Q: What sequence folds into this?
């Protein structure tokens, strides 16, 4: 840690980007200022992407100086960017306390998707995921989640804009629901960033009690990391399954009122050779998903040094997909983006030693499905 980050950390203050427009109005009112001044601040922060109070010239100087005394406005800074030959861009970002996270920008012809992290590390220890091997450091704040988007916007070419957002980076979003919810409110606020909720996807390994509350925040899409058709296998891949087994997970989704034909679940199924890629697995899936409006996204395992798994051959992947397709499931194969810069699913790992001399501090999950997880 540099002495600059240390001293900033020492007097860590609340961040204005932890507040949605509504929360800023309340904060202003509580301080005896008109609520519409809070609106003006929200517009600067989230619509104009300005986090320098000196530039917010329509706010009275007295308000600006009081805010400057008590709040931070910045939370992350870009440490490094890497660009893949396919245009995928990986951003390495540092928080005020020195922890580092990654976000991935995936440009396509008709849309630009950003994959964001919600935690530093992850407590779930999924055996095939790079993040699982790293342990858990802390939750990200709302400001840090929102800043991933604002920083990524600054990296984008003139005339392009972010169209889709996937919470599929490092961490389990539903174990950080308050911060994730407020970030979703900020980013879907029609008067600010104005992302359409249907273009936002939150992925979970299945923290069941939080699924209902998440879907109450806004009509976003839910992605669920399934990866297995039996508890025996899923217990190993996703240890959270011991607490919330497959039948309970699927029961919760079946009963969830905010899941319906227009808002199906995107199931993620990372295919691993000899682990979950059999024809029997494929045959079990349609029955398991019966009654849940769903799309299934097959992601051939992206190899990394912390996991003993690899992808099946293309023939096995195709056969698996064909069985599902023939059974009437909506199936897609996730395209591999950014592999040459370790930015593909489960490959994001900041290999730079930050704490341990021989290990990475952070890694992120994946780049998001490019066909399914966002409506056109
Ligand atoms: N904790 C949440 C959010 C992370 S999303 C969740 O589990 O859903 C991360 C996604 O990346 C998961 O769906 C997982 O399937 C995928 N993933 C992780 N490691 C992978 C790997 N090595 N290869 C392919 N996909 C991987």
A:
């Amino acid at each position: 840690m540099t002495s600059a980050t240390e001293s900033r950390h020492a007097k860590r203050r609340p961040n204005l980007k932890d507040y949605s427009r509504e929360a800023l109005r309340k904060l202003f009112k509580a301080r005896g200022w008109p609520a519409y001044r809070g609106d003006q601040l929200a517009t600067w922060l989230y619509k104009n992407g300005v986090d320098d109070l000196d530039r917010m010239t329509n706010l009275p100087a007295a308000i600006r100086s009081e805010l400057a005394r008590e709040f931070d406005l910045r939370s992350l800074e870009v440490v490094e960017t890497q660009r893949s030959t396919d245009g995928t861009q990986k951003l390495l970002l540092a928080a005020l306390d020195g922890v580092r996270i990654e976000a991935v920008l995936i440009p396509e012809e008709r849309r630009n998707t950003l994959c964001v992290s919600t935690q530093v590390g992850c407590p779930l220890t999924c055996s095939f995921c790079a993040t699982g091997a790293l342990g858990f450091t802390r939750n990200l704040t709302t400001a840090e989640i929102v800043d991933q988007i604002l920083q990524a916007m600054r990296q984008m070419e003139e005339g392009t804009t972010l169209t889709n957002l996937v919470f599929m980076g490092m961490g389990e979003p539903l174990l950080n629901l308050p911060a994730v919810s407020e970030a979703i409110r900020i980013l879907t606020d029609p008067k600010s960033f104005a992302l359409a909720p249907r273009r936002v996807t939150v992925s979970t390994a299945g923290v069941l009690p939080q699924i209902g509350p998440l879907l109450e925040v806004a009509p976003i899409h839910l992605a669920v990391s399934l990866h297995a058709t039996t508890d025996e296998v899923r217990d190993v891949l996703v240890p959270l399954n011991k607490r919330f087994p497959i039948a309970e997970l699927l029961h919760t989704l079946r009963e969830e009122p905010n899941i319906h034909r227009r808002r199906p679940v995107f199931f993620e199924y990372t295919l691993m050779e000899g682990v979950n890629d059999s024809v029997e697995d494929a045959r079990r899936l349609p029955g398991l998903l019966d009654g849940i409006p769903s799309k299934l996204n097959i992601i051939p395992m992206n190899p990394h040094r912390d996991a003993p798994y690899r992808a099946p051959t293309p023939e096995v992947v195709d056969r698996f997909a064909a069985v599902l397709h023939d059974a009437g499931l909506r199936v897609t194969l996730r395209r591999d983006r950014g592999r040459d810069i370790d930015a593909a699913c489960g490959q994001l790992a900041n290999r730079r030693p930050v704490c341990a001399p021989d290990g990475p501090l952070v890694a992120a999950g994946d780049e998001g499905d490019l066909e399914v997880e966002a409506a056109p």
